Automatic annotation (TrEMBL):
Lineage: Bacteria, Pseudomonadati, Pseudomonadota, Alphaproteobacteria, Rhodobacterales
InterPro entries attached to this UniProt entry: Glyco_trans_25 (IPR002654)
Domain Glycosyl transferase family: 9-185
Listed Pfam families: Glyco_transf_25
Organism, scientific name: Paragemmobacter aquarius
Protein name, UniProt field: Glycosyl transferase family 25 domain-containing protein
Length: 293
């Protein structure tokens, strides 16, 4: 039986993706987790006014409507947190895979350090290990005793994160100025003022990851590829964008080197069962296989 938890669970799902909703619902039900569905904004059919939270271009390039719609969907989730008075919420995209320890993670929010309003629980690119610069251990999670550390380098992906009501309010206060995809907005300080304000933490090792074979295909990948291909056909535009991205990437290098040299941060490796060569748990494979067959 699914039950309510101190950390609310919000699931972002397109109305057209009932396959993902049924698979996610079965997975969450199996874990005893109740969720509230957030109807995602569909960038292929939505009026431009509904995408006004973000701009059409920014420091890492053009943002197609599907990318902006993804951001608008997360904005709806943040607004729900504020409107309902939730202290914290775990926000999930509908192609996420959850480790069983997530159940204990949301059963109590006392493990979240004071002053931390955004905690990334997801590993991006789950089939390979990633290295990030992270601060000292601030806390440990209830189950599995995972570490909670400050993020001092980017690690994108927005399939799973916990945000406080205060964090949601801060994010909403900047609506209209977003000029990068939502995962960069939250977890890439080199291009995001919001990330700098929220100073996110990350759970190590992560508890959530995304996989195309699990998520039944990306809804925004094709438009992004089309935009990227358009830039590639314009050599000068491609060069300008590459130089701008390179400048962004090194903008915090002096701070990162200082933190590393003084022992205030260290390089941490992020892995998932998939990046360690393990298969998904049997229950999870059955859940997703039933919808992808």
């Amino acid at each position: 039986m699914s039950v309510l938890h101190p950390v609310g669970v919000l699931l972002i799902n397109l109305d057209t993706r009932g396959d993902r909703l049924s698979a996610m619902t079965r997975m969450l039900d199996a874990m005893g987790i109740a969720c509230h569905r957030i109807s995602a904004v569909d960038g292929r059919s939505v009026p431009q006014a509904d995408l006004a939270c973000s701009r059409k271009t920014g420091p890492i390039g053009a943002m197609p409507d599907t990318t902006r719609a993804c951001t608008a969907s997360h904005v709806k989730a943040w607004q729900h947190i504020v409107d309902t008075g939730l202290r914290h919420a775990l926000i999930l995209e509908d192609d996420a895979v959850l480790h069983p320890d997530v159940t204990a993670l949301i059963a109590d929010d006392g493990w979240i350090p004071a002053g931390v309003d955004l905690v990334k629980v997801e590993k991006f690119a789950p089939k390979r290990a990633s290295k990030i610069l992270a601060g000292k251990v601030l806390a440990r999670t209830p189950a599995g005793q995972r570490e909670v550390r400050r993020m001092y380098s980017r690690h994108t992906g927005s399939a799973g994160y916990i945000i406080s009501r205060k964090g949601a309010e801060i994010a909403l206060s900047l609506s209209g100025s977003y000029d990068v995809p939502v995962d960069h907005l939250l977890f890439n300080e080199t291009v995001s003022r919001l990330c700098g304000l929220l100073r996110p933490a990350i759970v190590v090792p992560p508890l959530v990851w995304q996989d195309n074979s699990v998520g039944l295909g990306s809804d925004i990948k094709a438009p992004r590829l089309a935009e990227n291909n358009a830039v590639r056909r314009k050599p000068f535009a491609r060069l300008a964008l590459s130089l701008r991205r390179a400048a962004n990437e090194v903008s915090l290098l002096h701070i990162q080197l200082f933190l590393l040299a003084t022992g205030r941060a260290q390089v941490v490796t992020l892995t998932t069962p998939q990046s360690r060569g393990r298969a998904l748990p049997g229950l999870w494979r059955k859940i997703w296989a039933s919808d992808s067959a």
